[in-house]
């Protein structure tokens, strides 16, 4: 009667099995890491585009309330007569070293009982488009605006204006013949991450 060999695995077989299990664990870990990185990237991208859409929604909301009246900025000199008040155009825009700026008067928003104001959008040195809000449509030159970050991570902010001759210009008013408000705006936002976004808005009928 033949003798049976005892059951079990050899050392070589155990080492091979451990190696295979280690490789499978490593691949699973890398796959899980890739999934988590992708999910985080998608979350960051979604948050970025929500911020961009919120910025343009706020900009368009202010634009819809743009008022064609000039602002009456009081004279800076103490005791100056009302006749010395310096009128500001209803809209003024131009460019500086960081890009364009846009400043205009707007009516109050009825839904939130907001008063008529002077507002401005411009890019600061921290790559943020700031929203400037004055306490009223007519304010003294020394009255500082409240400044809020409207959109961060912006490398370039540009605004162009469509005049009555259907010509795009970089400043408003471009001439004495221009209306208080442009017919349309073309806004370009170049993000630090490389996306180049251009939106157009109608202003005056």
* Secondary-structure element pattern, one letter each: HEEEEEEEEEEE
Taking all Cα atoms into account, the compactness measure Rg is: 30 Å
Could you list the spans in which at least 5 consecutive residues all have pLDDT below 50? 75-83
- The tally of strands reads 11
Mean pLDDT: 84
Helix fraction bin: 25-40%
How far apart the termini lie comes to: 108 Å
Largest sheet: 5 strands, antiparallel
Please give the order of strands in the largest beta sheet: 3-4-5-6-7
Count of discrete alpha- or pi-helical segments spanning 4 or more residues: 1
Proportion of strand residues: 25-35%
Q: Looking at the structure, what is the overall shape? A: elongated
Would you give an account of this structure?
There is one protein chain. The N and C termini lie far apart (108 Å). The protein contains one helix and eleven strands. The model is unreliable at 75-83 (pLDDT under 50). It has a domain at 61-74 and 85-152. With 205 residues, the protein is an alpha+beta fold. It has a five-stranded antiparallel sheet with strand order 3-4-5-6-7, covered by helices on one side. Strands 9-8-10-11 form a four-stranded antiparallel sheet, covered by helices on one side. The radius of gyration is 30 Å and the shape is elongated. Helix content is 26%, strand content 32%. A hairpin with a 2-residue loop joins strand 3 (91-96) and strand 4.
What's the gist of this structure?
The protein has 205 residues and is of the alpha+beta class. The chain contains 1 helix and 11 strands.
């Amino acid at each position: 009667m033949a003798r049976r060999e005892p059951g079990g695995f050899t050392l070589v077989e155990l080492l091979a099995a451990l190696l295979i299990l280690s490789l499978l664990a490593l691949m699973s870990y890398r796959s899980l890491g890739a999934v988590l990185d992708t999910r985080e990237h998608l979350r960051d991208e979604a948050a970025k585009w929500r911020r961009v859409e919120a910025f343009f929604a706020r900009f368009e909301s202010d634009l819809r309330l743009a008022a064609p009246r000039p602002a009456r900025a009081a004279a800076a000199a103490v005791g100056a007569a009302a006749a010395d008040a310096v009128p500001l155009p209803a809209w003024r825009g131009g460019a500086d070293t960081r890009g364009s700026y846009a400043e205009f008067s707007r009516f109050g928003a009825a839904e939130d009982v907001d008063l008529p104001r002077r507002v401005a959008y411009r890019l600061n040195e921290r790559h943020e488009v700031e929203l400037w809000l004055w306490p009223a449509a007519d304010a003294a030159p020394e009255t500082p605006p409240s400044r809020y970050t409207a959109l961060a991570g912006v490398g370039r902010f540009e605004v162009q204006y469509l005049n009555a001759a259907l010509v795009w210009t970089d400043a408003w008013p471009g001439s004495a013949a221009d209306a208080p408000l442009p017919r349309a705006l073309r806004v370009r936002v170049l993000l630090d991450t490389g996306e180049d976004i251009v939106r157009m808005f109608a202003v005056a009928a």
